Description:
There is one protein chain. The chain has a single domain (7-346), classed as B-lactam Antibiotic, Isopenicillin N Synthase, Chain (Jelly Rolls, Sandwich), CATH 2.60.120.330. Helix 2 crosses helix 5 (142-167) and helix 3 (50-64) crosses helix 5. Strand 12 and strand 13 (278-279) form a beta hairpin. The two termini are 16 Å apart. It is built from eight helices and 16 strands. The protein is of the alpha+beta class.
Amino acid sequence: MTFRVPAIDISPYISGSPDDAAARDRVAREFAAACREVGFVQVHGHGIPADVIDGLAAASDDFFVGLEPDAKKKYQTPPGINRGYSPPKSEATSLSLGVEPANKMNDFFEAFNVGLTVDDYDADDLLEEQYQQNVWPDVPLFRERVETYMQHARAVSQTLMRMSADALELPTDFFDAAFEHATGTMRMNNYALTPGMNVTLDGELRGMGEHTDFGVITVLWADRVRGLQVLGTDGGWHDVQPDEGALLINLGDITARWTNEHWMSTLHRVKPPVIDGTIIRRRSVAYFHGCNWDAIVEPLPELLAEGEAPLYEPVTATEHMRAKLAGTRAGVLNTKAEREGARVISAK
């Protein structure tokens, strides 16, 4: 079977029109099939204006290309702060799965993280660890452009959760309570050689190592430069390039656990294309939609067949995220991802 990422037009959900009920039912069925079979989907009709996406791309260029390495490093934060700048080779994403990089080399990408903060909610019982304050660079229009896109990506994520409930044949508002204080982190990635930085291009060079996403659902904007690879059910890695104007959507670990792996948190990685010893620049921005910090993550009884055994023990969303982030940002091997790690090891 030829590997492909399904393309779905979600505009019937974006419109919210009562006249689109039949179309929403069709979209939900298509989404359910994609989540069962691939775990990735191309989304058209998402409703994010082109000028907002163009502004995001410009902000990425202004920071990653417009600033010198030393200027960018002023915004670097410690491993326990999931905000601000991450230089190239400062993270090892595969450690989040309990798998050492084959060549012991950290990931090649550089990144800038922002996200939802405690200030986004009228609540005094939030764990600030999961709603950290943002670090904003002194770059004209950067904050305005990034915040504007992030709010649109968050809205798309909320739509996708309603669609997920329909696709799982649950009440449309089934997941609402788990997202009253949703966490959200947006990561801007840049894959390119930084001027003045020496990097050896040999062996199994990774732009970003094999990993599954940590949260519930990911909304990814990427330019159309090749590099993203997805692990198929055939055990092989397959190139994925976004359609013109589409967003790539993939499921995270929490969704896989809620559904007892009936829906897939698919392994993926980035292999930057190298031509004549130079990495072609690639840009992507991922919005990671997460549930409440204290939500219990375990297979949902409503989704278990009669006699079906849960594959996971209960864990809070924060405990799950701590183990994952300790791998990528602090270099601590995650010992609680046996099922995902085994899939990496068995990949062709």
